[in-house]
């Protein structure tokens, strides 16, 4: 029997995510895990370690090579952190499944302070995320932010060596790696809005591959799909500005989706935000996200975006 080929990056987090997808698929369909083959694909975002990704530029630094393999039929499905995906997918590919979302919050890790507020004046914080950098500066303009890349293990070693006083990482990734014991505290979303897509694993497949679409639809989580539809529509409406810090989160209630989106200047001193609610439908979620993104684009004006490119 030919195996179903799952494409993924080779990082520890990506591998954990691919294994989770395989476990869920084999369990829901009563298939042997042997029916799936996990293929590791090298991506540019993993090869470049010495620069912030916003400087490497381009879209899909963590997904391009995987998407090429998918389009070429070398793999049948791709597993991604939705946060790392471009807002517009290559022709012929689509997100066909979202796994139930993990916790969306950012985690604060520091050997010297319990929370961001408790860091000493002028403390050095490591982060290469424009969003985290801007939100930190907004809370604490005195902090010095330095570039901080590499896998979670490398970052923890730098933290222990005292290179920086603190760093921030997605709680979801740390939990998936079984490293949440290293977390000092969690950043509440009202003060520190997560990145669109944070905490959600998705599966991408070919539009015309009906068999794979049906296979993965069985493990789709409807609430995560609603939230991510809103967040990705928001991102798409703001597109063309990968050097603008963007945050956005949709939350599913009993009879409505609530959304909050934000764009910031790199120093965090200027920010525009939008909030809205809509009914529990994919179309309403998409329309709401798009409207919020367009509104922020108008509020901020073109100069705000051009300034950073
Ligand atoms: N850009 C790296 C990346 N992409 C997804 C996650 C975490 C897992 C997730 O959000 O699903 C991370 C690491 C981090 O931000 O700490």
Automatic annotation (TrEMBL):
<keyword id="KW-0808">Transferase</keyword>
<comment type="similarity">
    <text>Belongs to the HMBS family.</text>
</comment>
<dbReference type="InterPro" id="IPR022418">
    <property type="entry name" value="Porphobilinogen_deaminase_C"/>
</dbReference>
<dbReference type="Pfam" id="PF03900">
    <property type="entry name" value="Porphobil_deamC"/>
</dbReference>
<comment type="function">
    <text>Tetrapolymerization of the monopyrrole PBG into the hydroxymethylbilane pre-uroporphyrinogen in several discrete steps.</text>
</comment>
<feature type="modified residue" description="S-(dipyrrolylmethanemethyl)cysteine">
    <location>
        <position position="242"/>
    </location>
</feature>
<dbReference type="InterPro" id="IPR000860">
    <property type="entry name" value="HemC"/>
</dbReference>
<dbReference type="InterPro" id="IPR036803">
    <property type="entry name" value="Porphobilinogen_deaminase_C_sf"/>
</dbReference>
<feature type="domain" description="Porphobilinogen deaminase C-terminal">
    <location>
        <begin position="227"/>
        <end position="297"/>
    </location>
</feature>
<keyword id="KW-0627">Porphyrin biosynthesis</keyword>
<dbReference type="InterPro" id="IPR022419">
    <property type="entry name" value="Porphobilin_deaminase_cofac_BS"/>
</dbReference>
<dbReference type="InterPro" id="IPR022417">
    <property type="entry name" value="Porphobilin_deaminase_N"/>
</dbReference>
<comment type="subunit">
    <text>Monomer.</text>
</comment>
<dbReference type="Pfam" id="PF01379">
    <property type="entry name" value="Porphobil_deam"/>
</dbReference>
<protein>
    <recommendedName>
        <fullName>Porphobilinogen deaminase</fullName>
        <ecNumber>2.5.1.61</ecNumber>
    </recommendedName>
</protein>
<feature type="domain" description="Porphobilinogen deaminase N-terminal">
    <location>
        <begin position="4"/>
        <end position="213"/>
    </location>
</feature>
<comment type="pathway">
    <text>Porphyrin-containing compound metabolism; protoporphyrin-IX biosynthesis; coproporphyrinogen-III from 5-aminolevulinate: step 2/4.</text>
</comment>
<dbReference type="GO" id="GO:0004418">
    <property type="term" value="F:hydroxymethylbilane synthase activity"/>
</dbReference>
